[in-house]
Amino acid sequence: MTTRQPAIPLDDQLISVRAKLAAAWTSFMFLYAYVDIIAFYKPGVVDDILNGKVFEFTISQSLLTTFIALMAIPIFMIVLSVILPARANRTTNLIVASVQIPYAAFNVVGESWTLFYGLGLALEVILLAYIVRCAWTWPRTSSSVTSLDREAVGAQRQR
Predict the structure, then answer these.
(1) First CA to last CA across the chain, in angstroms?
(2) What are the residue ranges in the chain where pLDDT is below 70?
(3) Whole-prediction pTM value?
(4) Is 94:135 a contact under the CB 8 Å cutoff?
(5) What is the DSSP code string of the chain?
(6) Engineered SS bond to 97: which of 1, 49, 74, 131, CB 3.0-4.6 Å?
C-alpha cells in the first residue's frame, strides 16, 4: 500500500498588469488578423480582390494604407502596454480598447456570415473588455511608499 504524498501547491506568481495587457493585445491582434485571413475562404472574396474590390471599396493605396493603420493599433498597443509609464498606460489602454469595441461591431453590420463574424466579434469584445477591466482596476501604490521601500520589497520577493 502506498501512502499518498501531500500535494505541494504550484508556484502561482503574480503577473504584472503590463504583461496581462500585452498578452491580451497580442491575442486580440491575432484574432483580428485571423478573422480577416479566414474570410478569404468565403465564396467570391478572392475573385472580388482579383477584380480590385474589397467589400464595397475599390482597392487603392488609400484603402490599403487605412487597413495597415487600423491593424497597427493593436500591434502598437502590445509595445505601449509594456513601455508606457503606468498612468499613461492605463489611460491609453482604456481609451483605445473602448474605441475598438464599436469599431469591431461595425465590421459585422450588414454581414451575411453572421455566425463567423459574430463569433469573431464576441471573442474580440471579450478580450477588449478584459483589457478595459485590467486597465480600470490597475492597482495603486500608497503615497507613503517610497521608491526605496519598493526596492526593498522587490529584493525580499526575489529571495
Answers:
(1) 39
(2) 1-2, 110, 142-159
(3) 0.79
(4) yes
(5) -PPPPPPPPP------HHHHHHHHHHHHHHHHHHHHHHGGGSTTHHHHHHTTEETTEEP-HHHHHHHHHHHHHHHHHHHHHHHS-HHHHHHHHHHHHHHHHHHHHHTTTT-S-HHHHHHHHHHHHHHHHHHHHHHHT-----TT--HHHHHHHHHHHH-
(6) 131
Classify residue 110 as exposed, middle or buried by CB count within 10 Å of its CB (0-12, 13-18, 19+): exposed
pLDDT tens digits, 129-140: 999 999 999 999
Chain center to CA of 15: 16
